[in-house]
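Example noted here:
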Amino acid sequence: MDLAEIPVEPPVPPSPSVSPDLFGADCETVIEGSQVLANCHNGYPETDLVRLHVECDRWWDLDADAAPVPVGPAGRVELTGRCWKEVRSAWVTHQRP
């Protein structure tokens, strides 16, 4: 190894990347038959408006979009929904107030 190739100063570390946006409650959604349950916990310092969306399996069964529910910092909320018959899918969306 040639000593002339070794830099005198250590290389400059890259600038830290912009921190990710710390927002959004952590939600767990459980489907049991025609019932849906979502438990959300907000571990961040900003209020999150969460909404439960339920898509029913049968074409004649109405899908549902719940009203937004505020979850404050360190807060918890339970959201429920249902179909008459089977549930195809369910998910929670997040929105800033």
